[in-house]
Amino acid sequence: MKKKKVSCKNVMKHICESLCEDLNDERCVEIKNHLESCANCKQYFRSVEITIDCYRKYNVQMPGEVHGRLMKILGLD
Amino acid sequence: MEERQLIEKAQAGDKKALNELVKKYEQTIYNFAFKICRDKNFAEQIMQETFYSMIKSLHQFDHNSKLSTWLYRIVSNHCIMLARKLKSRSFVSIDDDENLFEEKYTADWNSIPYKDAENEELKTILDNAIQKLSPEYRIVFLLRDVEGLSTEETSQITELSIPAVKSRLHRARAYLRKEINEAFIR
Protein backbone atom coordinates (compact mmCIF):
# COMPACT_ATOMS: atom_id res chain seq x y z
CA MET A 1 0.00 0.00 0.00
CA LYS A 2 1.26 3.47 -0.85
CA LYS A 3 2.22 5.57 2.19
CA LYS A 4 0.07 8.69 2.67
CA LYS A 5 2.02 11.86 1.93
CA VAL A 6 2.55 14.13 4.92
CA SER A 7 0.74 17.51 4.68
CA CYS A 8 2.44 20.88 5.19
CA LYS A 9 0.17 21.66 8.12
CA ASN A 10 1.19 18.41 9.83
CA VAL A 11 4.82 19.20 9.12
CA MET A 12 4.42 22.59 10.80
CA LYS A 13 2.78 21.00 13.82
CA HIS A 14 5.53 18.44 14.06
CA ILE A 15 8.23 21.10 13.76
CA CYS A 16 6.72 22.91 16.74
CA GLU A 17 6.50 19.68 18.71
CA SER A 18 9.98 18.33 18.28
CA LEU A 19 12.08 20.66 16.09
CA CYS A 20 13.04 17.38 14.39
CA GLU A 21 15.53 16.66 17.15
CA ASP A 22 14.78 12.98 17.53
CA LEU A 23 16.57 11.36 14.63
CA ASN A 24 15.54 7.89 15.79
CA ASP A 25 11.91 8.80 15.34
CA GLU A 26 10.56 7.64 11.99
CA ARG A 27 8.27 10.68 11.82
CA CYS A 28 11.22 13.06 12.25
CA VAL A 29 13.03 11.42 9.36
CA GLU A 30 9.89 11.73 7.24
CA ILE A 31 9.58 15.42 8.13
CA LYS A 32 13.24 16.06 7.35
CA ASN A 33 12.74 14.51 3.93
CA HIS A 34 9.71 16.73 3.38
CA LEU A 35 11.72 19.82 4.34
CA GLU A 36 14.29 19.03 1.68
CA SER A 37 11.71 19.49 -1.05
CA CYS A 38 9.31 22.08 0.43
CA ALA A 39 10.62 25.64 0.57
CA ASN A 40 7.58 26.88 2.50
CA CYS A 41 7.98 24.37 5.34
CA LYS A 42 11.73 24.88 5.34
CA GLN A 43 11.13 28.60 5.87
CA TYR A 44 8.61 27.80 8.61
CA PHE A 45 11.16 25.58 10.38
CA ARG A 46 13.76 28.36 10.21
CA SER A 47 11.25 30.88 11.55
CA VAL A 48 10.52 28.70 14.61
CA GLU A 49 14.25 28.42 15.25
CA ILE A 50 14.64 32.20 14.95
CA THR A 51 11.72 32.76 17.34
CA ILE A 52 13.40 30.66 20.02
CA ASP A 53 16.76 32.27 19.35
CA CYS A 54 15.27 35.77 19.77
CA TYR A 55 13.90 34.93 23.22
CA ARG A 56 17.19 33.26 24.21
CA LYS A 57 19.16 36.36 23.35
CA TYR A 58 16.79 38.79 25.08
CA ASN A 59 18.29 39.04 28.57
CA VAL A 60 18.33 41.74 31.21
CA GLN A 61 21.24 42.58 33.44
CA MET A 62 20.39 42.94 37.12
CA PRO A 63 21.30 46.47 38.29
CA GLY A 64 23.77 46.74 41.18
CA GLU A 65 21.28 48.49 43.47
CA VAL A 66 18.86 45.55 43.07
CA HIS A 67 21.56 43.24 44.46
CA GLY A 68 22.08 45.63 47.39
CA ARG A 69 18.37 45.75 48.22
CA LEU A 70 18.11 41.95 48.00
CA MET A 71 20.96 41.38 50.43
CA LYS A 72 19.51 43.94 52.83
CA ILE A 73 16.05 42.36 52.78
CA LEU A 74 17.52 38.92 53.37
CA GLY A 75 19.75 40.19 56.15
CA LEU A 76 22.87 39.13 54.29
CA ASP A 77 24.49 42.55 53.82
CA MET B 1 33.78 25.02 47.34
CA GLU B 2 31.40 22.50 45.78
CA GLU B 3 27.74 23.50 45.67
CA ARG B 4 26.69 20.56 47.86
CA GLN B 5 29.07 21.66 50.62
CA LEU B 6 27.85 25.23 50.28
CA ILE B 7 24.23 24.12 50.65
CA GLU B 8 25.04 21.97 53.69
CA LYS B 9 26.84 24.87 55.35
CA ALA B 10 23.94 27.20 54.56
CA GLN B 11 21.51 24.63 55.97
CA ALA B 12 23.57 24.65 59.16
CA GLY B 13 23.13 28.42 59.40
CA ASP B 14 26.36 29.64 57.80
CA LYS B 15 25.54 33.15 56.52
CA LYS B 16 28.59 33.35 54.31
CA ALA B 17 27.59 30.17 52.49
CA LEU B 18 24.04 31.48 52.11
CA ASN B 19 25.41 34.72 50.73
CA GLU B 20 27.42 32.75 48.15
CA LEU B 21 24.36 30.78 47.06
CA VAL B 22 22.25 33.90 46.63
CA LYS B 23 25.02 35.59 44.64
CA LYS B 24 25.40 32.52 42.43
CA TYR B 25 21.74 32.44 41.39
CA GLU B 26 20.46 36.02 41.70
CA GLN B 27 21.12 36.98 38.07
CA THR B 28 19.50 33.78 36.74
CA ILE B 29 16.42 34.23 38.92
CA TYR B 30 16.08 37.95 38.16
CA ASN B 31 16.40 37.31 34.44
CA PHE B 32 13.91 34.43 34.52
CA ALA B 33 11.39 36.44 36.55
CA PHE B 34 11.74 39.33 34.09
CA LYS B 35 11.18 37.02 31.15
CA ILE B 36 7.94 35.80 32.69
CA CYS B 37 6.49 39.12 33.84
CA ARG B 38 8.31 41.53 31.42
CA ASP B 39 8.60 44.17 34.11
CA LYS B 40 11.76 45.09 36.05
CA ASN B 41 9.97 46.06 39.28
CA PHE B 42 7.99 42.83 39.36
CA ALA B 43 11.14 40.88 38.51
CA GLU B 44 12.88 42.38 41.54
CA GLN B 45 9.90 41.67 43.81
CA ILE B 46 9.66 38.06 42.60
CA MET B 47 13.40 37.54 43.01
CA GLN B 48 13.25 38.80 46.60
CA GLU B 49 10.31 36.51 47.38
CA THR B 50 12.09 33.56 45.73
CA PHE B 51 15.21 33.90 47.86
CA TYR B 52 13.16 34.57 50.96
CA SER B 53 11.30 31.30 50.30
CA MET B 54 14.60 29.55 49.59
CA ILE B 55 16.07 30.58 52.93
CA LYS B 56 12.87 29.64 54.77
CA SER B 57 12.74 26.12 53.34
CA LEU B 58 16.39 25.36 52.63
CA HIS B 59 16.42 22.87 55.52
CA GLN B 60 13.92 20.77 53.49
CA PHE B 61 16.15 20.63 50.41
CA ASP B 62 17.25 16.99 50.12
CA HIS B 63 19.65 17.09 47.12
CA ASN B 64 17.31 14.85 45.11
CA SER B 65 17.25 17.53 42.44
CA LYS B 66 19.67 20.28 41.48
CA LEU B 67 19.36 23.46 43.52
CA SER B 68 18.71 25.36 40.28
CA THR B 69 15.73 23.10 39.48
CA TRP B 70 14.38 23.70 42.98
CA LEU B 71 14.80 27.46 42.56
CA TYR B 72 13.09 27.42 39.15
CA ARG B 73 10.12 25.78 40.82
CA ILE B 74 9.97 28.46 43.53
CA VAL B 75 10.36 31.36 41.11
CA SER B 76 7.75 29.89 38.73
CA ASN B 77 5.26 29.57 41.57
CA HIS B 78 5.84 33.18 42.63
CA CYS B 79 5.34 34.35 39.03
CA ILE B 80 2.03 32.48 38.78
CA MET B 81 0.90 33.81 42.17
CA LEU B 82 1.67 37.38 41.10
CA ALA B 83 -0.16 36.97 37.80
CA ARG B 84 -3.23 35.65 39.64
CA LYS B 85 -3.05 38.54 42.08
CA LEU B 86 -2.86 41.13 39.30
CA LYS B 87 -5.58 39.51 37.20
CA SER B 88 -5.69 42.69 35.16
CA ARG B 89 -4.48 41.13 31.96
CA SER B 90 -6.39 38.72 29.84
CA PHE B 91 -4.51 36.09 27.89
CA VAL B 92 -5.18 34.44 24.56
CA SER B 93 -6.53 30.94 24.58
CA ILE B 94 -4.35 28.55 22.60
CA ASP B 95 -5.90 25.34 23.90
CA ASP B 96 -7.15 24.77 20.38
CA ASP B 97 -4.14 24.89 18.07
CA GLU B 98 -6.02 24.80 14.76
CA ASN B 99 -5.49 28.51 14.07
CA LEU B 100 -1.82 28.49 14.94
CA PHE B 101 -0.67 27.02 11.66
CA GLU B 102 -2.08 29.41 9.07
CA GLU B 103 -0.01 28.96 5.97
CA LYS B 104 -1.09 32.23 4.41
CA TYR B 105 1.05 34.36 6.76
CA THR B 106 4.53 34.66 5.38
CA ALA B 107 6.75 37.51 6.45
CA ASP B 108 10.25 37.83 5.12
CA TRP B 109 12.16 36.39 8.07
CA ASN B 110 15.44 37.47 6.53
CA SER B 111 14.41 41.06 7.23
CA ILE B 112 13.87 40.38 10.95
CA PRO B 113 16.81 41.81 12.92
CA TYR B 114 17.13 38.67 15.05
CA LYS B 115 20.91 38.84 15.25
CA ASP B 116 20.71 42.21 16.97
CA ALA B 117 19.70 41.40 20.54
CA GLU B 118 19.48 45.11 21.41
CA ASN B 119 17.04 46.07 18.64
CA GLU B 120 14.24 47.97 20.41
CA GLU B 121 11.57 47.28 17.79
CA LEU B 122 12.23 43.55 18.05
CA LYS B 123 12.25 43.68 21.87
CA THR B 124 8.83 45.37 21.87
CA ILE B 125 7.44 42.73 19.51
CA LEU B 126 8.86 39.92 21.66
CA ASP B 127 7.43 41.51 24.84
CA ASN B 128 4.00 42.02 23.29
CA ALA B 129 3.83 38.50 21.89
CA ILE B 130 4.80 36.66 25.06
CA GLN B 131 2.61 38.81 27.29
CA LYS B 132 -0.45 37.53 25.46
CA LEU B 133 0.36 34.01 26.60
CA SER B 134 -0.77 32.91 30.04
CA PRO B 135 2.10 32.50 32.54
CA GLU B 136 1.56 28.73 32.54
CA TYR B 137 2.51 28.61 28.83
CA ARG B 138 5.29 31.16 29.21
CA ILE B 139 6.94 29.15 31.98
CA VAL B 140 7.05 25.94 29.93
CA PHE B 141 8.43 27.74 26.86
CA LEU B 142 11.06 29.60 28.86
CA LEU B 143 12.21 26.61 30.90
CA ARG B 144 12.52 24.31 27.87
CA ASP B 145 13.60 26.57 25.04
CA VAL B 146 15.24 29.53 26.69
CA GLU B 147 16.81 28.08 29.84
CA GLY B 148 17.51 24.78 28.07
CA LEU B 149 16.04 22.43 30.68
CA SER B 150 14.90 18.95 29.68
CA THR B 151 11.26 17.98 29.26
CA GLU B 152 11.60 15.84 32.42
CA GLU B 153 13.00 18.72 34.48
CA THR B 154 10.29 21.06 33.15
CA SER B 155 7.66 18.49 34.09
CA GLN B 156 9.15 18.23 37.60
CA ILE B 157 9.21 22.01 38.08
CA THR B 158 5.73 22.70 36.73
CA GLU B 159 4.20 19.51 38.15
CA LEU B 160 2.74 18.80 34.72
CA SER B 161 2.82 15.44 32.97
CA ILE B 162 5.34 15.03 30.13
CA PRO B 163 2.58 15.04 27.45
CA ALA B 164 1.17 18.24 28.99
CA VAL B 165 4.62 19.91 28.89
CA LYS B 166 5.04 18.89 25.24
CA SER B 167 1.60 20.11 24.32
CA ARG B 168 2.07 23.51 25.98
CA LEU B 169 5.51 23.85 24.46
CA HIS B 170 4.46 23.24 20.88
CA ARG B 171 1.50 25.62 21.18
CA ALA B 172 3.63 28.33 22.77
CA ARG B 173 6.28 28.00 20.04
CA ALA B 174 3.68 28.13 17.28
CA TYR B 175 1.86 31.07 18.85
CA LEU B 176 4.99 33.18 19.41
CA ARG B 177 6.25 32.44 15.92
CA LYS B 178 2.87 33.44 14.47
CA GLU B 179 2.84 36.72 16.44
CA ILE B 180 6.35 37.69 15.30
CA ASN B 181 5.46 36.70 11.75
CA GLU B 182 2.38 38.93 11.75
CA ALA B 183 4.27 41.83 13.32
CA PHE B 184 6.81 41.79 10.52
CA ILE B 185 4.37 41.56 7.63
CA ARG B 186 4.79 44.90 5.93
Describe it for me?
The complex is a heterodimer of chains A (77) and B (186). With 77 residues, chain A is mainly alpha-helical. Helix content of chain A is 69%, strand content 0%. Chain A has helices spanning 8-18, 26-37, 39-57, 64-74. In chain A, helix 1 crosses helix 2 (26-37), helix 1 (8-18) packs parallel to helix 3 and helix 2 (26-37) packs across helix 3. The mean pLDDT of chain A is 86. Chain B is mainly α and 186 residues long. Chain B folds into two domains: 3-86, Orthogonal Bundle (Rna Polymerase Sigma Factor, Chain: A); 98-183, Arc Repressor Mutant, subunit A (Orthogonal Bundle), CATH 1.10.10. Chain B is 67% helix and 0% strand. The A-B interface holds A 8-9, 12-13, 16-17, 40, 43, 46-48, 50-62, 66-67, 69-71, 73-74, 76 and B 15, 18-19, 22, 26-27, 30-31, 34-35, 40, 43-44, 47-48, 51-52, 55, 97, 100-101, 103, 106, 109, 112, 114, 117, 122-123, 126, 130, 141-142, 145-146, 166, 169-171, 173-174, 176-177, 180-181.
Beta-strand portion of chain B reads under 5%
User: Count of DSSP E strands of chain A?
Assistant: 0
Task: Give the name of the CATH superfamily of the largest domain in chain B.
Answer: Winged helix-like DNA-binding domain superfamily/Winged helix DNA-binding domain
Number of domains of chain A: 1
Question: What is the element string of chain A, with H for helices and E for strands?
Answer: HHHH
CATH class of the largest domain in chain B: Mainly Alpha
- Terminal-residue CA separation of chain A: 73 Å
Shape of chain B: elongated
Q: How would you spell out the order of helices and strands of chain B?
A: HHHHHHHH
Q: Structural class per helix/strand content of chain A? A: mainly alpha
Radius of gyration of chain A: 22 Å
Mean pLDDT of chain A: 86
Largest sheet of chain A: none
Proportion in helices of chain B: 55-70%
C-alpha end-to-end distance of chain B: 54 Å
Largest interface: A-B, 32 and 45 residues
